[in-house]
């Protein structure tokens, strides 16, 4: 049966797609279970931004299979994509819910983040005549400096939500700014501030039933952040390190590989310019130049120094990356032929290129690398 599957898989790649990503859903399921085991808490699966580029609908199902039945997204349209696909799980919307979407959000039981008192007023006015009640999570700022009312004002915010009949408070949360660093002082201070607020709410009989503050790094490296009701699994559920300072335990596996096929090989004489601007010029006769159908429109950055795997070896990308293609040096791998597989992220033979390595080369973080793989790059799941 496995040989039949392999044959179909090879046919799909060779006949349909020349540039694709492969997503290992079992890796995602395993990673979620590991986060729960390490943190001791149920996991909110953060699947915003098309599940960090991995494909939201397939990842959502994998998360459910792993026991993660609560989702979080950034935009209302992301929540509705899940609802329209038939997912009825609780969904928390991290970003601002527009009043124009409030009635539909209430009807669909999408949880809204409330991070300022003005939201209470604008949402309750819209909901007042609809007969709908909106589930919400209060967001407090303990040190991120982004969304959220200051934690010292959190009691008043929760009380105001509690006193608003159009709103039903289900949760309370905050977000760490530096949990992915080895120095714990800032995270410890954020935990202290959050603890203080939770204690106040408990004493006033206002503690929501779902309290959460740990992101991936918090869940894995800060046990004190796991004393609440849930943790939020973001980058770690995809098997990617929160940072270079906080690397995942060895049991975690990256889920995404990015691949392409060589669509052309030509042999050029010395002095031949390659790609726009001729930033690279061949240095000897007989240089083999391969073309792969991957460009900056696919999310492969137009920077110098890109490397891919071909024939089990690292080979350089030559010249400027184009919108839809780029050229690679095949002299180090003389046996490679048109149709052979090239790896942008993943493993070939004994060599590997990780999303972390690509991020370092591009001067960014692994989050941006996978989120930046464009939608025209086919996702294939196994």
TrEMBL record:
Modified residues (N6-(pyridoxal phosphate)lysine): 48
The name this protein goes by in its record: Alanine racemase
Named cofactor requirement(s): pyridoxal 5'-phosphate
SUPFAM superfamilies: Alanine racemase C-terminal domain-like, PLP-binding barrel
Sequence similarity: Belongs to the alanine racemase family.
Entry's Gene Ontology BP terms: D-alanine biosynthetic process
Function: Catalyzes the interconversion of L-alanine and D-alanine. May also act on other amino acids.
GO molecular function terms attached to this record: alanine racemase activity; pyridoxal phosphate binding
Highest taxon of the lineage: Bacteria
Gene3D superfamilies: Alanine racemase (3.20.20.10), Lyase, Ornithine Decarboxylase, Chain A, domain 1 (2.40.37.10)
Enzyme class at the top of the EC tree: isomerase
Keyword Isomerase attributed: yes
Catalytic activity: L-alanine = D-alanine
Keyword Transmembrane: no
Originating species: Flexilinea flocculi
């Amino acid at each position: 049966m496995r040989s039949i599957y392999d044959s179909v898989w090879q046919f799909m790649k060779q006949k349909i797609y020349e540039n694709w990503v492969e997503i290992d859903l079992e890796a995602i399921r395993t990673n979620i279970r590991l986060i729960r085991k390490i943190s001791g808490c149920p996991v909110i699966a953060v699947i915003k931004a098309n599940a960090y580029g991995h494909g939201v609908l397939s990842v959502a199902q994998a998360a459910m299979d792993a026991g993660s039945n609560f989702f979080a997204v950034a935009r209302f349209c992301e929540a509705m994509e899940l609802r329209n696909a038939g997912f009825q799980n609780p969904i928390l919307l991290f970003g601002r819910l527009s009043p124009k979407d409030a009635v539909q959000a209430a009807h669909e039981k999408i949880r809204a983040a409330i991070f300022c008192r003005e939201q209470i007023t604008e949402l309750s006015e819209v909901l007042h005549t609809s007969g709908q009640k909106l589930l919400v999570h209060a967001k407090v700022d303990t040190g991120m400096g982004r969304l959220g009312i200051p934690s010292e004002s959190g009691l008043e915010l929760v009380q105001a939500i509690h006193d608003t009949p159009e709103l039903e408070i289900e949760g309370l949360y905050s977000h760490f700014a530096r949990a992915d660093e080895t120095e714990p002082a800032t995270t410890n201070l954020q935990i202290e501030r959050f603890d203080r607020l939770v204690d106040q709410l408990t004493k006033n009989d206002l503690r929501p039933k779902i309290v959460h503050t740990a992101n991936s790094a918090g869940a894995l490296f800060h046990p004190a952040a796991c004393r609440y009701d849930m943790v939020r699994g973001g980058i770690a559920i995809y098997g990617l390190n929160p940072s270079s300072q906080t690397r995942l335990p060895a049991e975690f596996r990256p889920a995404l590989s990015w691949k392409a096929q060589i669509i052309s090989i030509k042999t050029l004489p010395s002095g031949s310019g390659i790609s726009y601007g001729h930033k690279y010029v061949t240095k000897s006769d007989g240089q083999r130049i391969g073309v792969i159908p991957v460009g900056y429109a696919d999310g492969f950055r137009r920077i110098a120094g890109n490397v891919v795997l071909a024939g089990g070896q690292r080979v350089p990308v030559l010249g400027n990356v184009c919108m839809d293609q780029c050229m690679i040096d095949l002299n180090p791998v003389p046996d490679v032929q048109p149709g052979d597989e090239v790896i942008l992220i993943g493993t070939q033979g004994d060599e590997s290129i990780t999303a972390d390595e690509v991020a370092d080369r591009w001067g960014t973080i692994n989050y941006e690398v996978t989120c930046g793989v464009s939608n025209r790059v086919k996702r294939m799941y196994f």
